[in-house]
Fold this protein.
Amino acid sequence: MPSIRVRFAPSPTGHLHIGGARTALINWAFARQQGGTFVLRIEDTDVERSTEASFESIITSLRWLGLEWDEGAEKGGSYGPYRQSECFHLYKSEAERLLKNGNAYYCYCLPEELEERRKLALKEGRPPGYDRRCRSLSISQQESLSREGRKPVVRLLVSESQTIVVDDVVRGRVSFGPGIISDFIILRTDGTPTFHFANVIDDLRMRITHVVRGEDHLSNTPRHVVLYKALGAEPPRFAHLSLIMGPDGARLSKRHGATSVEEFRENGYLPEALLNWLALLGFATPDGQDVFPISDFVKRFDLSALGKSAAIFDRGKLDWINGTYIRNTPAAKLRELCMPYLLKSGYDVSEYSDDALGEIIESLRGNMAVLPDCVAQAAPYFKPIETIIEPEAREYLKSSQSARSVISGFVEEIKKRDTICATDVPLIGKALQKATGVKGKDLYMPIRIAVSGRLHGPELAKMLPILGKARCLSRVEEVLAMQ
């Protein structure tokens, strides 16, 4: 049995879509598990829409996710070129071979003629496919049409009576009945290949054993199968993955939020979390575990076990997974990731020492779903209390009968100390409880509001030592003045 060879073949006409990233992940995981080869091919035959900037963006996104390829674009290999724009001569050569052996023919029909016939066929209840009128043109007829200025396309000769059966790894046996496809174009008038032709030629010459792609390509498969047969080759195994849908059941689009890997990166998602979330789409772990290293996914991966139903885009679950990874990120790495957001926010980080900045970021991790959350969560460390106190916090202080006495007692306890350390916080709490008779939430909530302006946030044992005695006193006195 030949070694497994799979490919990811994006078109460089924009950023890497999250659906494309999932397809890349599935191909990569399958290759890794099977000891096979993961190939990156760039399908850039659309020279008008393809850009080098998009190519670079796709490459960057794949590498950011950790989906490194074994051969292909930028790396080379034994079956290049790996960019279709460098292969036009190969497609032309294969088309000429099909013309020579009678499996293809020139078609001189004009687009407007084809459209007119299509409309007539639909009106009369006939299949709207090509009517094959150029299939048997003589050489003299072809020359006459050429003299009229008509430039031919090349069409593949397709049997009208065949049933095409595909044993799809994910979807099982899929049958396409007679007449579902007519003679289709493989080379355009300018000599460029259609998607179908270039796709099959490249999969053949790159020795691809499994074509793993989105379900939206399932309808293309009959054309690809007949192309393989016309070229005298056996088709690879096909596996068509379910598509990612929005929560409303519609195809994932901009109206559902970020859709490209670059956008998710800019929005503060970690690559490990995004991969983890993508791995869960259409794949159920045996133990029901939702958070796992990608190496575990590779070990458990089973291409045939992928779900057939649409995968639903659940941002809430992605946020939860990302928050879990943030909470488990090493302190030095988390600081490296968060500092650009804090600096961009305009906070005066020079107020704190390097060690204190590290402690600030460490205190935030439990309340972050995405990296930019650190900006809002860090506000109590950098902004004046009157600018950040929440309406709900103000209301709590107004409605609490004991808040003022607790806060006043807190001031006295702070003044007794030269500094505040983490071990002081429970001692202060015990002293306040004894002095005021207040305990639990009624004791600690007024203190939290007085120093942070928030009902929720970092633990007081972490926050108070970072703020220090002077800041705590200043803030608490401001809050007392507000009441």
